[in-house]
Amino acid sequence: MIVSLLLAAMLALASVHDGQQPSPTPAPSVTPTPAIATPAPSASEIPTPAGSPSPEVSPAPSPTPTGLNLPPLTYHITPKQPPSPDPTSPQILEIDLNDQVLYSTKTFAARVTTNDVVTKVAISSNGHSGQMTLVAPGRFDSIGNIPKLPAIIGGLSVNLVFTATTADGRSTSVKVPMKVKR
Questions:
Q1: Are 27 and 2 in contact (CB under 8 A)?
Q2: Closest CA to 2 of 32, 31, 33, 28
Q3: What angle do CA 59, 65, 66 make, to 5 degrees?
Q4: Strand arrangement of the beta sheet that strand 139-145 belongs to
Q5: Domain 1-26+73-79+89-182 - what CATH class?
Q6: Which of 64, 96, 104, 111 is placed for a possible disulfide with 182 were both Cys, Cβ 3.0 to 4.6 Å?
Q7: pLDDT tens per residue across span 94-145
């Protein structure tokens, strides 16, 4: 989804060349929902009819966030931080990508590590953007497939802009230059 949105501007340029309009289709975002364990009532609180076994109640385990099933992330960007950053300001601590080149018909995967005050991260390029999935406080993942790109797109460079935003609207951004290959 993110990749389709990010490359929509390039596809629009290519569609003028090919005489067709692109139609990116957003995919649903997956956000894990934590389970809430409720304490089991004591045996004296549960009336049990005579002759029936009492039910066993076990607390539901709370899920550990594992994130999306990302391929190995080999391209690492560590943005320069201010000398003494305000802990209440949004910070992008690291951006990990599966490659520094976007390949036609291949997978694009990203993980952004932020401080805990960040509530959402968006990836944008050329006026199009998409939200990353919040996996755990301070960790956002995204994965998608690059659509088949026309030959005119190969060799171009784009800037992916990662923007981290807090609940009260404060934000910070990091630009990551990427090559596009067909």
A1: no
A2: 28
A3: 125
A4: 75-77, 92-97, 107-114, 139-145, 133-136
A5: mainly beta
A6: 104
A7: 999 999 999 989 999 999 999 999 999 999 988 889 999 999 999 999 999 9
